[in-house]
UniProtKB/TrEMBL annotation:
Highest taxon above the source species: Bacteria
Name of the protein this chain belongs to: Transcriptional regulator NarL
Any one GO molecular function term: DNA binding
Keywords: DNA-binding, Phosphoprotein
Record-annotated membrane-spanning stretches: none
InterPro entries: CheY-like_superfamily (IPR011006), Sig_transdc_resp-reg_C-effctor (IPR016032), Sig_transdc_resp-reg_receiver (IPR001789), Tscrpt_reg_LuxR_C (IPR000792), WalR-like (IPR039420), WH-like_DNA-bd_sf (IPR036388)
Any Pfam family matching the protein: Response_reg
GO biological process: phosphorelay signal transduction system; regulation of DNA-templated transcription
Keyword DNA-binding: yes
Entry-linked NCBIfam families: PRK10651.1
Domain Response regulatory: residue ranges: 8-124
Organism field: Escherichia coli
SUPFAM superfamilies, sorted: C-terminal effector domain of the bipartite response regulators (SSF46894), CheY-like (SSF52172)
Length: 238
């Protein structure tokens, strides 16, 4: 990012001390800058619309409009920025629900500062980010979804299956387009149709389905190993 403008980030969290701590941490990174902060979902949505940040760090448990409701509203706005949930909760229902509803990542608030900063860089670069402690949580969810996955994947065209496989491997649309020798816009159209057929809300869900499906070479254990904070692993659900 050194030759580019700093990535912009919006903080949405009802704890002012936490926001201050995160801002101080981010100030150590010259290629990321905090452009706004909000103490509740309503204010966060207004700032997101006016600032259009590259990244939104969203608390899950807030009074009034909670994090999931805020996430839904932000997704309805079709904002270009990526949204990463930042929470104390490591419960499977919270994690899986957030990802299904369109979050581009899920980070725990007890992670080490250097790991958080590294994750924010990855998120700003367009990758999926997940705390390493969530690996067993997602492993259980992947196993539970395996049977449903096989049925849903049968609805896809061969090209859509190819794209799903590459999504599960962590490839962004641009790289998928190069791999399949098609345009990026064509990839986006296929992804849109694929999500509709499989009744999914985001490519995050599609990545999980692809990683757990028996139609692909990616086994559940190998997919789960990707869901750690290491660079080669963080892209599993991107």
């Amino acid at each position: 990012m050194s030759n580019q403008e700093p990535a912009t980030i919006l903080l949405i969290d009802d704890h002012p001390m936490l926001r201050t701590g995160v801002k101080q941490l981010i100030s150590m990174a010259p290629d990321i800058t905090v452009v706004g902060e909000a103490s509740n979902g309503e204010q966060g949505i207004e700032l997101a619309e006016s600032l259009d940040p590259d990244l939104i760090l969203l608390d899950l448990n807030m009074p009034g409009m909670n994090g999931l409701e805020t996430l839904d509203k932000l997704r309805e706005k079709s904002l270009s920025g990526r949204i990463v949930v930042f929470s104390v909760s490591n419960h499977e229902e919270d994690v899986v629900t957030a990802l299904k509803r369109g979050a581009d990542g899920y980070l725990l608030k007890d992670m080490e500062p250097e790991d958080l900063l590294k994750a924010l860089h990855q998120a700003a670069a367009g990758e999926m980010v997940l705390s390493e402690a969530l690996t067993p949580v997602l492993a259980a969810s992947l196993r539970a979804n395996r049977a449903t996955t096989e049925r849903d994947v049968n609805q896809l065209t061969p090209r859509e299956r190819d794209i799903l496989k590459l999504i599960a491997q962590g490839l962004p649309n641009k790289m998928i387009a190069r791999r399949l020798d098609i345009t990026e816009s064509t990839v986006k159209v296929h992804v849109k149709h694929m999500l509709k057929k499989m009744k999914l809300k985001s490519r995050v869900e599609a990545a999980g389905m692809g990683a757990s499906g028996a139609h692909f070479l990616i086994t559940v254990p190998s997919a789960v190993r990707r869901l750690t904070m290491r660079r080669t692993v963080r892209q599993a659900l991107a």
